[in-house]
Design goal:
heterodimer; A: 149 residues; alpha+beta; 2 helices; B: 104 residues; 6-stranded antiparallel barrel; two-stranded antiparallel ribbon; 1 helix; 9 strands; globular
């Protein structure tokens, strides 16, 4: 059996995040080298910069004979370095730019909205380590009670 | 864990399996070679709730080998320079000092 549409969409999002590379992507950082789906174990500092994404709650409504799904996509970004406030801003820009490449993920979604970020948090010990959470709403349609089409 | 004085001498003897030679420089003095037990322990940090295991350099030294006022002193270990930015933590018997080092 094929994957449900939500899984297909998440696979496309994963692929997109992994394309955040300095070369050939033209992004600021190689965030795509350390992308994790629903990671529940702590990151090792050698894995930074890193991205963790989660598909969270999904609100479904009925529209024109379809189920409209509004899925909350949460993306955590962690990175380190002496110039961390600036690098964090650039990292946020990389993620927003990447998702903006195609808001429909090849026609799988109707639209993607950027909801914003939480406050940047910085912890200073041996080095500065920072984290931020970005939130997006991805809207997609399925036939009623048919998650596959 | 702390070592008694005999064991400390054995552990910190030059050439012992446990130690690495380090060039220790007290601010304003010439460098001297001391023996350190070098490690990279980790501690959890969680900026914005994102859990990261941060590794940091740490050296155990014989307390007698470093100056009592060692803040901003430096250690060169395997070609890397580390600075003592925090007061050393002495073991219960006072024979050893744990130095949480910084590269900056």
């Amino acid at each position: 059996m094929t994957d449900p549409k939500r899984q297909t969409l998440i696979t496309a999002i994963d692929t997109r995040l992994k394309q955040i590379l300095v070369s050939p992507g033209g992004y600021n950082y190689n965030l795509g080298s350390s992308v994790h789906e629903w990671r529940s174990t702590p990151l090792d500092d050698s894995e930074l910069p890193a991205v963790i994404y989660r598909d969270l709650e999904e609100v479904v409504s009925v529209t024109v004979g379809k189920h409209e799904h509004r899925m909350l996509l949460e993306i955590e970004l962690a990175l380190s370095g002496a110039t961390v406030p600036a690098t964090m801003r650039k990292g946020i820009a990389d993620i927003v730019k990447a998702l903006g490449v195609d808001l429909t993920f090849g026609g799988l979604a109707e639209d993607t909205e950027f909801e914003g970020t939480e406050a940047i948090s910085i912890i200073q010990n041996e080095r500065r380590i920072a984290g931020v959470i970005l939130r997006f709403i991805v809207t997609y349609l399925t036939n009623p009670f048919d998650p596959y089409a | 864990m702390s070592l008694d004085s005999d064991l400390t001498d054995v552990f910190y003897a030059a050439g012992s399996l446990f130690v690495t030679p380090a060039a220790y420089t007290h601010v304003g003095s010439a460098a001297v070679t001391i023996q350190v037990i070098f490690d990279r322990p980790s501690r959890p940090v969680a900026p914005q709730g994102i859990e990261v295991e941060e590794y940091y350099p740490q050296a155990r030294v014989r307390a007698a080998d470093i100056n009592a006022s060692c803040i901003n002193d430096s250690l060169v270990i395997a070609g890397e320079t580390y600075y003592i930015r925090h007061p050393p933590e002495l073991t219960e018997d006072g024979l050893e000092a744990v130095l949480n080092l910084s590269k900056v």
